[in-house]
Amino acid sequence: MFISVILFVVGLVLLIKGGDWFVDGATGIARRFHVPELLIGATVVSIGTTLPEVMVSAQSALAGHGEIAYGNAIGSIICNTSLIAALTVAVHPPKVDKSTIRIPVIFFFIAAVFYAGMAYITGYFSRVSGLILLALFLCYMTVTVRSMLGKQAGTEGAEEEAEEEPVAKSVGLLVVGAVLIAVGANLLVDNGIIIASALGVPESVIALTFVALGTSLPELVTAITSLIRGHGALSLGNVIGANLFNLVLVAGISQTLSPFALPSSKVVMGMNSSLLIDIPVMLFVMAFLTVPAIIRGKLEKWQGITLLCIYFAFCVGQFIL
Length: 321
Prior knowledge:
By secondary structure, this protein is an all-alpha fold. It has one domain: A middle domain of Talin 1 (Up-down Bundle). The protein contains eleven helices and four strands; from the N terminus they run H-H-H-H-E-H-H-H-H-H-E-E-E-H-H. A two-stranded antiparallel sheet has the order 1-2. A hairpin with a 2-residue loop joins strand 3 (267-268) and strand 4 (271-272). The chain starts with a helix and ends with a helix.
């Protein structure tokens, strides 16, 4: 198992570095063709930071390991909210621009209610449900792009011309980044399965904890960097956007490629732990973070500390319950 742990860590490193290079390459190409900066941030960068989750879940679903595809999407949302965003709020609660987070939060809960409905009513994530989630992703991107273009038009000429990278370099970063992400995801999935088997725990537990934390590292780095530079609101916005993409893009792609049943290998108090713990925790932590922010336009340190405690309890509970 030692070699599997090493390869698992190597996979994480490749995912993170590949994601960085992919975003850098895509951003360089977009700037080269004079795509508005705000539009780059709202589309290319946001999707790029979610690519590790996309690749891990897609490969897991195609390989017949639906538990990892499910656990990675749900676990990443819980990790992003109750660890990454929670750190930001606990250390230095940011001021919240209600108008900025309202749309992604609304789209998130629309997708979450649909996702939960499929889990509780059918216990199966079909290709149709995946296509519906992807349709929600396209709707969100359309709304976001129109909003960003409107803002760009209102501030046209205010930005300085960014230094352009050579196209060959940007394309090279894009291609190499994509390859590293694919290889890293493959290492992560294959060795995560081996580790789960060696530890005698369900694959969904590994996905909900280690895999989810690993694929959320880009958001964690963003959060720490934002805190150091005093831009906590940026971290909060990135987490909310990443959570939405985990549902509509990550889950949508994996379900469309290879439908799978709700994991049922773990039972707590006679109930499927996915229905009793995982999905309710996902919904609760997002509501706990975003609803007060939208209503009051601010967050308190105690909310961040509470979320951190929830994340610790959730991770411990995955292994002892």
